[in-house]
Amino acid sequence: TRQLFSLSKKPAKAQDAGDGNAFVRAIMAGSRLTLRNPVTRILTVAAFTAGSIALAAVLLPKAEYLPQGNRNLIINILIPPPGYSDEKRWEMGRHVMAELKPYLEQDYLDGIPQIDNLFFVASDKFNLFGGTSKHIDEARAMMPVFTRVMNEIPGVFGVSIQSGIFENGVGKGRSVDVNVSGDDYPTIVAAAGMLYGVIAQAIPGAQIRPVPSLEIGYPEANLIPDRARVVANGLSEQALGEYIDVLMDGRRIGDYKPAGGQLMDMVVTGVDDAIKSPEDLLGGLVATPFGELIRVGDLAHIEYGQGMTQVDHLERKRNVRLEVTPPDDYALQTALETIGDELIPPLEQTGKLDGVSVRVGGNADKLTETRQALQWNFVLAIVITYLLLSALFGNYLYPLVILFTVPLAAGGGFLGLAMVNWLIAPQPFDILVMLGFIILVGTVVNNAILIVHQALNNIREAGMDGMQAITQSVRTRIRPIFMSATTSLFGLLPLVLATGSGSELYRGLGAVILGGLALSTVLTLFVVPALLAFLIGRERPSSAPADAPM
After folding, report:
1. Helix (H, G, I), strand (E, B), or coil: what is residue 319?
2. pLDDT, tens digit (0-9, with 9 covering 90-100), for 365-412
3. pTM for this one?
4. Chain-centre distance for alpha carbon 473
5. 389: how many CB neighbours lie within 10 A of its CB?
6. Is the peptide bond before 212 cis (omega within 30 degrees of 0)?
7. Are the C-beta atoms of 456 and 507 separated by less than 8 Å?
8. Which of 57, 303, 352, 542 is the most buried (most CB within 10 A)?
9. 267 - beta bridge partners?
10. Are the beta carbons of 44 and 538 closer than 8 angstroms?
11. CATH fourth-level superfamily of 21-59+395-538
12. Is the CATH number of domain 218-307 3.40.640.10?
């Protein structure tokens, strides 16, 4: 065959057509050493496989849920004390804007990147402010000044969070929910407050947001029915509650759709502006089943007290939720294990959580569910690959030899992820990274397929014996294997080495595939031939050897 182009001006040597260059000769020397006898084969398979599994076990990081990303938005949630007036909220907003105004006008004042946009929102239910940076990759650097401004507001508790790209709701991107449920709010709040302090001490730097609050100081009016009078008038406490609902905000009783019109809600309401204070409710009239009208004040009385701005329920019990956002260098799985396994059980055993039930959930539950789903997907990928290879080879044993490359790749995948953490940037072990191991199942088997297929051809078509067929297969497939692997590795490098917005999303995925492919490519040349040597002796030539080598 005529050579069209060559980068080398030196004429090819006869030796180059044999074992090739020094690298190929070194690989072949190692391969022959591992194939010398059954003991060396077993040691090769056991050492490399156990080493890869041990490497994966040592380097296995704690898991995250979804990638946080580096979104250019910082949200600061403010929790004021009970009874905070509208004027106080205006004053709080003016303080925030005045303190942050210099950072809107000057870049890198006190080392803080310039704020591009700043907003403040306040209402009875929530209070927050947020901002974006003119340097889209440095939004996180604004958090210290935001935290300082929040801490300067008397009596106000604040949480500063970088909004995640997959976040569903304010502050719900990377959090562990600790739900404290019970029947008595004072007991619930006391237990939640104790857990707040314990978690803050165990996870330094964690942002903990209580929902709705840890204070029972909001004024409330409770309408207490007189059960005897309610029953005597043919009513029930539920019916009285429905009447109160009608008198206050109205109650939906059904739907109505006029001809050719749209479906509308039918709502029964009391007289507009008739109820301006809790005492006005006592003068409202309700109808009894006996056809009589009776004042609410004759059926119930008002008791004033203190409570929450809202009443949350979990499984029909009153609930206070602590949304715990761990620091960036503290994995979500680690936070889940710390709270669920190390903090809560001792408190329950000592009776400090009597009267309440504590459950850890939120994104922590989603992480557990997703990890279990991915584990089954990984097993399914292996099963499908095995069945496909069994059909192609017409044999159930050779696919098992090929699939031995998967544990080799697992060690390389975790090694690649660790090297990215050490040399480039911190990379969490999130769901996208886990997908890389499923992709590896269909990628790393290609090199083993080349070796096994060529060895079988050497026996069936060229009439070689088993060991000669394996050695010749390794020698002739070294270059195709490394050519294919090298192009794949260099194609993955930009995914791993690229910087800028969004690069952190796929860097871990690329690192896992790159590391797994690189390590399995080298180890496959020794492990697969060593395993194949135990099985290939059963093969026989399918025809007389050809006159010319294949």
Report:
1. strand
2. 888 888 999 999 999 999 999 999 999 998 899 999 999 999 999 999
3. 0.78
4. 44
5. 21
6. yes
7. no
8. 352
9. 252
10. no
11. Multidrug efflux transporter AcrB transmembrane domain (1.20.1640.10)
12. no
